[in-house]
Fold this protein.
Amino acid sequence: MKSSVIDIKNNSVGELELPDRFFAVPEKKHLVYMAVRRYLNNRRRGTADTQERADVSYSTRKMRAQKGSGRSRQGARTSNIWKGGAVVFGPHPRDYSIKMNKKELRTAIFSALSSRFREGDVRILKGVKASGKTKEIANLLNSLNKEKELGTVLFVYSEDNGNVELASRNIPYCKPLDYRFLNAYDLVVYDSILFTEEAIKGMEGWWKNE
């Protein structure tokens, strides 16, 4: 499978042979869904905690007489119906993480990547070498925006492209991502995906045994 390659000024500079095992994977919607759900769940801290009856610090004295007042029957001040009382069925610390098989997870990643490539949302860049200045990546994105509105951008780079992380992180609509940390969530939510030529070559070595 071949894809056109563009330079930092949005000029076509040839074609690149893309690995089929990354860019020609059949669509696996359920695996992509599970991978996205796993990504979001694993980000949850799970530290929310509420007080139960035994945790609330109040006297256990009966609030008023059982009969004679004409009002409702009330027991301890720790009851959940009182302001400052306990919480019924509230959250407690727990682990929200979800496990997936290694093979399933990688299939989900490349299925999402292949789908976005087929939809025309993936572009391959050549000649990216960032020194860490934000204006370098900003100028690159502006030149690409002239042809087609990019929207939010996932910028997949390699260490060989210089300090792309530093140059991109102050651009609110662009997320820099090392090719080694590709995940289904980022591949699904961003409007456009930019790969450097070095990132493509790096992927072939990183997942060479898959």
In short: The chain has a mean pLDDT of 92. The domain at 2-30+101-206 is CATH 3.40.1370.10 (Ribosomal Protein L4; Chain: A;).
